[in-house]
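Figure caption, in words: inputs first, then the predicted bound structure.
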Amino acid sequence: TLASSLAIEHVETRAKENSIHLLETEKAESTCLSIVVVGASGELSRNKIFPALFALFCEDRLPKNVAIFGYARSTMTNEEMRNMISKTLTCRVDQRENCEEKMDQFLKRCFYHSGQYSSEEHFLELEQKIKENKSGRLSNRLFYLAIPPNMFVDAVRCAERRASSGNGWTRVIVEKPFGSDIDSSRELTRCLKKYLNEDQIFRIDHHMGEELVENLLVLRFSNLIFEPLWSRDYIRNVQLIFSEDFGIEKRGRYFDNYGIIRDIMQNHLLQVLALFAMETPVSLDAEDIRNEKVKVLRSLRPVQLENAVVGQYKGNDVTSCAAYTNEPTVSSNSLTPTFAAATLFIDNARWDGVPFLMVAGKALHSNRVEIRVQFRHVPGNLYKQKFGTDLDKATNELVLRVQPDEAIYLKINNKVPGLGMRLDLSDLNLLYKSRYRREIPDAYERLLLDAIEGERRLFMRSDELDAAWAVFTPLLKELEEKKIAPELYPYGSSGPIGLHYLAAKHSIRWG
Ligand code: NDP
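Bound structure (NDP present):
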C-alpha cells in the first residue's frame, strides 16, 4: 500500500542520513588540523589572528582535532606564548561564565616553536612537534604567513619541504603586500608557485571579509530592484571611499615604502570595485566569481596621472598632531602619499563613461569606508520644471557603509509634510545594529574559516592580482620617476583641495 511504501522510504532515508552523519563524525574524528601562525610574536598575530581563532573556537567552528602552533625567531616557551596571546583574547562571542573555561581549553591547544624563517632544519623540528600532537589519520596543515614579505618565499620553501602534510591538504595564507608593482608581484607569484599550487595559496586582504563587502553580491543578485539600474543608463558615478582619522601610527617603516595607493587602492578598493561592477557570475563558486572579477579588472583603463591626486598630511598646530614626515621611521623628505584620489573607467558596454572615483587617505577628518552610488537625474523632472528644485537634490544616492556602523541607505526625494510643496532628500535606512542584534564577526574570523573550509571566493587569484597591478603600476611609476610632490593637507582635514577639482572635472558631486 502507499502508506507502507512511504514508511519504508522514510526509514531508508533516515538510515541514509544516519550513515552520512556517522561517516562525517568518523571523518572529523580521524582528521586533524594544525594551524601554524608564522610570525607569531608579531602585532598582527597577537591582535588579529589568535583572537579570530579563539572566536572560531568559541563558536565551535574549528575542527574537533585542532592544534595551533606559533612559529617565530623570538625565544618563548609554550607558556610564555599562551600568556602573550591570552591578553588579547576576548569574550566577545561567548560572554557567559564559561568563557574563561573556553579560553583555558583554547590555550591548551596552542604551542610555540622558535626558529628561523629560512631554516629547513627548524621547520623539521616544528614538524616533529606537529606530529606529537597529531591525533587521527588524516592531517591537514594551514600556515598563516604573518611576517615581512621578503621572508614569504623562504618560509614557504621550508614549510613545504619539511612541514607540509603528507596525506591531507596544505594551504598557505599570505598577507599583503603581494609585491610592489606588476613585476615584483609576478616574481613573488612565480617563486611561491615553485613550492605551491595556485589552489594552495590564499592571498588575504582582510577588508574582503567585511560584512558589507560580502553583502554586496547578495544585494545585487538576490533583489530585483538594483540589478536593472546597475549600469551607465542609470548610474552617474560611483565613489569608493576609505578614510581614516588617524595617521600611520607605528607602521612607518612599512608604509613609507608602499604608500596609500599600494596599501589600500590597488587591493582593497579595486577588489570592491570588481565585485560592484562585474557581470552576473555563472554560480556562486569561487572560480566563477573570480572569473568575472578578472574581466572587470582587465577592462579597466590604467590610471593616468591627469586623473589622480596625491596628498600627504602635515602637522596640525591646533590638535598638536605630527606631520607624516615627522613620524618615527619616516624620512623627513619623503614623497610617499598618505592620500590619493583617482578616477577609473571601465571600458565595457555596461560601464562605458561612468567615472569610479576612488578616495583613500589617512589623518582625515572622518573614519569611514563607503561605497556611494550616485544615480542620474530624473528625465523631464516635473518637480524641477514646476518648482525649480535644485538639480542635485533630485538625484538618488545609494550608500553602502562598510565601516563604522554598517548600514545601507538610499537617498530618495520625499515631500516635506505640510500644506506647501517642498521636497526633501531623505533616507530609506537599514542600520545593521538596529535590525540585527547579533555581533558582526571580525573580518579575520570569516577569512580564516574560509581558508580552513577551502572556500576561495574572498581570496585573490594570481591573474586577478596581475590585472590589479596593471591598473596602477603606470601611475606609480610616473609618480616615482617624476618625483611628484604630494599636495599637503592638515592632519584631521578633508584632504587636499585637488580632490574637489578632480571630482568637478568628472561632474561628480563630492562631500
Ligand atoms: P611585525 O613587524 O610585527 O612582524 C611580525 C613578526 O615578523 C615579528 O614579530 C618578527 O618576529 C618577525 N620579523 C619582523 N621583522 C623581521 C625581519 N626584518 N626579518 C625577519 N623577521 C622579522 O608585523 P605585523 O605582525 O604587523 O604584520 C605581519 C605581516 O602582515 C607584515 O608583512 C605586514 O605587512 C602584513 N600586514 C599587517 C597588517 C597589520 O594590521 N599589522 C595588516 C595587513 C598586512 P621574530 O623576530 O620573533 O621572528
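The CA atoms of residues 370 and 401 lie 4 Å apart.
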